[in-house]
Amino acid sequence: MLELADPFLQVTPGAVADGVNYVWILVVCFLIFFMQPGFALLESGQVRAKNVGNVLMKNMTDWTLGVLVFFLVGAGVSGLAAQLTAGGTAVDLLGAFGYMSSTGGPGWIDWFFGAVFAMTAATIVSGAVAGRMKYTAYVFVAAAMTAVIYPVVTGMTWGGGLLSGSGFVGSALGVGYLDFAGATVVHMVGGLAGLVGAKMVGPRAGRFDSNGTSQPIPGHSMLLAVLGTLFLAFGWYGFNVGTQATVLASGEEGVTFMGAALGRVVLNTTLGMGAGGVAAMVVSAGWQGKPDPLWAANGLLAGLVAVTGAVPHVTWWGGLFLGGLAGALVLPTYRWVVNSLGIDDVCGVFAVHGSAGAIGTILIPVFAYEAGGVGILGDAWGFGGGTQLAMQVVGVAVIGVWTVLATAAAFKLADALFGLRVSDQEEELGLDESEHGISVYPEFVAGGSREGPTVSPDGGTRGGTQDD
Predict the structure, then answer these.
(1) 369-376 and 379-381 beta bridge pairing
(2) Which of 1.10.8.60, 3.90.190.20, 3.30.420.40, 1.10.3430.10 would CATH assign to domain 11-446?
(3) Among 407, 434, 424, 410, which Cα is nearest to 137's?
C-alpha cells in the first residue's frame, strides 16, 4: 500500500489514482490497436499472393470505418440494448448516446477503450471470407458488426443488460455472466460471424472437389502468418491485462497498488498462450507426422482466446489447462468445420476464436480462484457453483444465437444490395487486381502465378509452380 500526503502533492489520493488509471487505459488501448497489424499479417500470410492487397484493404476498413460507425451508432446501440434487456421501462436516448456530448477526458477515453475491442471483433470476420467476397459487401457487413451485432452483445453483458447481474437472465439466476475481457463477447462473436459468413459466401473455387473432399489451397507466406501471430500475442497483453483497468485503488488509507490482480491476469494470459501453442504442436505432430508452425501459431492464439474471459477468475493451473485444451482442439475443430460442415473458413477463425472462446468461458467456474479456498498446487481453488456454470452455458448460447441470426441477416442484406461474391473470372484473376487494381508483389506475381514452394493451412508443403 502506498500512502500519499495531500499537502505535498496538492491533490487528493483519488485524483492521483484516477489519473494513473486513465493513462494506463490509454496505453493498453494503443497496445490493443497494435493487434490490427497482427491480424493483417496473419491473414495476409494465409491467403494467396493475388489476394493480399484485398485482405489489407479489409483490415484497414475495419478500423477506419469501424471507429466512425462505433462512435456515431454502435456505442449508443450498446447502451440501448442494456436498457432494453435490464428491465427498464423507458428508453433514455440521451443516456445511451451521452458519450458524444462528453466534455472530453474520461468519457471519451472510456469510449475509446470500448472501440478498440469492437474493432477486434469486426476484424476477425475478414479471415474467414478471404479470397472471394466482394469488397462492397464486406464494407456493409463490417459496418453492421460495429453498429449493431457486436454492440448488442456488449449491451447484454458488460453494459449491464440481459446477462449481467441486473438483467432479466442474471436476476432470474442470481448471478451475472463472467467474461472478463471478451472470450465470447469479442472473440466468439467474431468467430461465429466469420463462420456464418464463410458458409453464406461459399467456398473458394477448387476448395472442394466433385466428391466434396477438401483440397488444400496454400497460403503464400508462413513468415507473415507467424509474425502476425506474435504481433497479436504482444497486443493481447493490452487486451487482457489492460482490462484490469484499476492499477491504483484509492480509499481511506490512501492509494493501493493492485499488484495481485494484475499479476493473476498477466500470469494466466502467459500460461494460456504457452499451453495453447505447445498443445497444438503435439496434436499437429500426431495428426500430420511432424509439428506444424502454422498450427502452433493457431494454437497459441486459441489458448489466448480461451483464457481471455477467465484470467482474473481462475487459478494459475486452471489457466494452464484452459489454454492447453483450446490449443489441442484447434486443429481437429478446423478439420471438422472443413470436412464435416463443408465450410471454407480460410484462416480457421471459428476454431481459433469461436469454439475456443466458448469452451474457455463455460469452464470458468470449474477452475475458479477463491480467496481462502482449498489450496491446490499453490493456489486457492473453489468451485464456482452450479448456478454460475449454468449462467455461463446460457450466456454462451444467448450470445451465439444472437450472433448467428444477426450475422446471417447482415450477409443476406449485403447479398441483396451488392452480391456477396466476385465473379469466377475475378476470383481467378485475384481480388487485388479485380477489386482494387493493384498487385502487392508486382516483381514476383505475373498472371496469378509464382515459382517456389507454398505452405498450406491444412499442413504440408507443395513445391514447384503453384497457382496463386
Answers:
(1) antiparallel
(2) 1.10.3430.10
(3) 410
The pTM is what?
0.92
Query: What are the beta bridge partners of residue 395?
Result: none
**2 phi and psi angles, rounded to 5 deg:** -115, 120
pLDDT in tens, 60-114: 999 999 999 999 999 999 999 999 998 765 678 878 888 888 765 688 999 999 9
| Rounded distance between C-alpha atoms, residue 261 and residue 265, angstroms | 6
For residue 227, what is its C-alpha cell? Answer: 509474425
The one-letter code for the residue type at 114 is G
Residue 448 pLDDT greater than 50, yes or no: no
> 468: which residues sit within 8 A by CB, 6+ positions away?
48, 49, 50, 220, 430, 445, 448, 449, 450, 454
Find the farthest-apart pair of alpha carbons in the chain and give their distance in angstroms, rounded.
Answer: 80
Phi, psi of 376 (to 5 degrees): -125, 125
3-state DSSP: the chain helix, strand, coil percent, rounded to 5? Answer: 65, 10, 25
Residue 293, all three cell numbers: 508452425
Of the candidates 276, 338, 278, 269, the residue with the CA atom closest to the CA atom of residue 309: 269
Name the β-bridge partners of 454: 462
Among 315, 312, 314, 283, residue whose Cα is nearest residue 298: 283
CA distances from 80 to 6, 83, 88, 148, 405 (A): 41, 5, 10, 11, 19
